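PROTEIN SPECIFICATION:
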Amino acid sequence: MKKQQRGGTVLGIILGIIVGLGAALGVAVYVSKVPVPFLSKGAKNADQDAAEARKNKDWDPNSPLYGKNPARITVPAAPDTAVGGAVTPAADGVAPAPADAQATSQPVAPVTAATAAKPDAKTPGKTASSDPLGDLVKAKSAEASAAESFNYFVQAGAFRSPSDAEAQRAKLAMLGWESRVSEREQNGRTVFRVRVGPFGKRDDAEQLKGKLEGAGVDSALVRVQR
C-alpha cells in the first residue's frame, strides 16, 4: 500500500514538472510573438525618424510653387563664345536663354549720387563771380523794374448805384483821402468802384490800405498792368 502511494506521488511530481515546463514554454513563445508596446513603439519611432530624415533631406522650400507637376528651375549653362558664338544646351533639357536676353537681363548699375554729382569734363563749371556786390545790385534792380511795371490801387468798395459810390467817395474825402469813381461791366451789370491811387510802389498802397481799415473802411489792394 505504501509502495503504491509512493509511486503515485512520484508520478504526480513528474507530471507537475512536465505541466510547469509546458506552461513556461508556452508563455515564452507567446511573449516572443506578441509585440511589447514600449519596444514596438521605440522601433516605430526609429523608422519614422529615418523617413523624416530622408524627407527633410530632399525637401524644397519652393515646392508649393511648382503645382501638381513640379518643374525645378535650372540654371542655363554659360554660352561657349569661343566656337562661333554657339550656345551649349543646359542640363535637364531646358533651352538656355539667348545671348541678347542674357545681356539685357543683367541688372544695370544704379547711378550713385557721387556719379550724378560729378561734373562733365567737357562742360566747364560756373566760375564764381568776381563782383558779388554788383550781381546783388543787378538782381535788386531787376526786381525793382519788374515791380515798377504795375500800378497799385486801394479799392474802398464797389457799388451798384452811383449815389452809393459818391457817398463812399465823400466819406473818404472827409477822412483826408482823395478817391475816384470808375464804372465797369461785371456779369452783365454796371458796377461803380471807388478807388484811391494809383501808387507806383506796393508798399505805399499797402500802407494806405492799413490806414483805411483802421478807420473802419473795408478795402482791397488792386494791381493793374501799366
In short: The first strand starts at residue 150 and ends at 159. Residues 158-225 form a domain with the Alpha-Beta Plaits fold (CATH 3.30.70.1070). Residues 66 and 72 are 7 Å apart (CA to CA).
